[in-house]
Specification:
Number of helices: 18
Structural class: alpha+beta
Length: about 375
């Protein structure tokens, strides 16, 4: 009765059962289909929908500006919702989970590793793994086997090897072995676990039922995944080298009182690998999928690339940046097939805020979602 007739969000449309309990939202999250559920709700109810007792989902562009845009003087920041942004296993926030002030500090220190200059210094390493990918694909398609080629797996092999080398100074050898390194499989399980952790945020008492309600092996694999990243990081830190990788830039600019602690470096190292690997592979897979569904677009792209380079060795970061159609294809792939389809929740600050032309009370969890996904 309260949530439907007296709650501050009573005027927002949405499923009546979802307004009573977050269990409905969590059900779709654990199934991995919350994005499809929310899309169907937006199709039914419009640009804003209530998906939990204190949760609103938006798909309007103005909502994105209101929530994530630059703050005017006197406006308070929408902080990250702790239901999603939980600390890493060592209890320290990485750049993704850090709140406003700390995020700014961490981002400033990590930015050197991702500058244009750093990218060009790392280009030789990029070519190493791209060349190896092409070699392995040629071997695969020229073999007498009739087995289908799963391009998503091969993109993942490449990006995990590359990011592993950039982050830890050593690859996972997925391309060489033509299979996932066991640590990569651990990381996929760690991502799955992050969904289950939301249960404990909404229902803390369920922690005592952990062994009954949550696959215990997921908890163990999450810890093992993080521990291995720490082990690889320590091995890289002991290695004296001028090789341009992520750690060389971080250590070079980490010499003042505002620098990253060792625990923060450990937390961010694991983030580098996941954020820079599976996401890139997912985008490339989506790009290939849509290109193959649109032969005219595919032909246009092939003509631009093959007409711009006489030799394979001519392809580089500077030269491909000048190909307008290639960059348009990648931009469009990001628009219609974003690697992260989940929502990025924020909490309405104290005193409430105007979102999409309507006042929302403080403490409400806001789930903005790109219109392209919806």
């Amino acid at each position: 009765v309260y949530v439907h007739y007296f709650h501050p969000l009573r005027g927002y449309p949405g499923p009546r059962l979802a307004a009573i309990s977050p269990i409905v939202f969590l059900f779709w999250e654990i199934r991995g289909r919350s994005h499809l559920w929310v899309k169907s709700l937006h199709d039914q109810y419009g640009d804003v929908v209530r998906i939990g007792p204190d949760i609103l989902a938006y798909r309007a562009s103005q909502a994105w500006k209101d929530i994530y845009g630059h703050r005017k003087k006197g406006q308070k920041v929408f902080l990250k919702d702790p239901s999603l942004y939980t600390p890493t296993p060592n209890g320290v926030d990485a750049i993704i989970t850090a709140q406003e002030a700390n995020h700014t500090r961490v981002r400033r220190l990590l930015a050197h590793a991702f500058s244009r200059r750093a990218l060009h210094e790392q280009e030789t390493l990029l070519h190493t793994y791209v060349d190896l990918l092409i070699q392995k694909l040629h071997e695969k398609v020229s073999s007498p086997s009739t087995e289908a080629l799963d391009i998503n797996r091969w993109f993942n092999f490449t990006t995990f090897d590359l990011i592993g080398d950039l982050a830890f100074g050593e690859p996972f050898d997925c391309l060489q072995n033509k299979e996932y390194h066991w640590w990569v499989s651990l990381m996929f399980d760690a991502v799955r676990l992050s969904v289950y952790v939301k249960l404990f945020f909404y229902y803390p008492f369920l922690k005592v039922l952990l062994k009954l309600g949550l696959p215990a092996y997921l908890m163990e694999r999450r810890r093992a995944s993080f521990n291995l990243s720490v082990e690889k990081l320590n091995r890289r830190m002991r290695r004296q080298t001028d090789r341009p990788d992520f750690m060389s830039y971080i250590l070079k600019h980490n010499d003042d009182e505002h620098g990253l602690s060792m625990a923060e470096i450990e937390a961010n190292a694991a983030t580098f690998v996941l954020a820079g690997s599976e996401t890139t592979a997912a985008l490339l897979s989506g790009c290939v999928f849509y290109l193959l569904r649109n032969p005219a677009t595919y032909a246009h792209l092939v003509n631009e690339i093959r007409g711009s380079f006489k030799n394979y060795s001519d392809i580089g970061l500077s030269s491909i940046a000048k190909l307008p159609y290639l960059n348009a294809v990648l931009d469009e792939s990001l628009r219609i097939y974003p690697p992260i389809a989940t929502m990025l929740p924020r909490i309405v600050p104290e005193g409430g805020a105007m979102i999409n032309g309507r006042f929302v009370p403080e403490g409400v969890s806001i789930f903005p979602k790109p219109r392209e996904i919806c």
